[in-house]
Specification:
Elements (H helix, E strand, L loop, with lengths): L2 H32 L4 H12 L8 H20 L16 H30 L5 H11 L2 H30 L7
Helix pairs in contact: 1-2, 1-3, 1-6, 3-4, 4-5, 4-6
Length: 179
């Protein structure tokens, strides 16, 4: 099985989960930082983002599946970055935009997936307190690199990037519109 075939099969499974994750991550961070979202609403949005509605036992599994699925898409996608010989990109196709955005967000999405998985599993499976795992959340949200004042811009960048990849990927798979 080729990397392209694996990429497509994994994408079919995790695209909805990644879309929900990107949207709720954006709504939570932007809503809390720029629009004064209430604590109660923030907790609800974050519960959806983390899959807490599935229950305590399935919550870390949800995060693990979403994160590992994203990492597999990044890993298999890296193998396809080079343009195939003889392929002429069309401006009307999603592939050139998908490729460009994927290159731009690959590293921050990798960091976000790894630290998101680490944060959830460290608490759920290894018994860490939130304070012990806070450094993982700080990397996940961009706080460590950009500070709390500018982390919303980082979340906006990777959230919109991931949503773009989901939409263009779904279009290439024939799930949205004509192929």
């Amino acid at each position: 099985m080729t990397f392209r075939a694996v990429h497509k099969k994994v994408a079919l499974i995790v695209l909805p989960v990644l879309a929900v994750s990107a949207l709720t991550g954006l709504v939570f961070r932007i809503g809390r930082q720029w629009f004064g979202m209430t604590e109660a609403t923030g907790l609800t949005v974050r519960a959806i983002h983390e899959g807490k509605y599935l229950g305590e036992a399935l919550n870390p599994i949800y995060v693990l599946v979403a994160g590992l699925g994203l990492l597999m898409l990044i890993g298999t996608g890296i193998t396809m970055v080079r343009r195939r010989r003889g392929a002429v990109p069309s401006r009307r196709r999603a592939r050139p935009l998908h490729r460009l955005v994927a290159i731009a967000v690959a590293l921050p999405l990798t960091a976000s997936a790894v630290t998101g998985i680490g944060f959830r599993l460290s608490q759920s499976w290894f018994g860490w307190t939130k304070e012990q795992a806070q450094w993982l959340l700080d990397i996940h949200q961009g706080t460590l690199l950009f500070g709390s004042d500018y982390r919303a811009y980082y979340v906006l960048f990777i959230g919109v990037g991931l949503l773009t990849l989901v939409v263009t990927g779904a279009r290439m798979l024939g799930l949205l519109g004509r192929r």
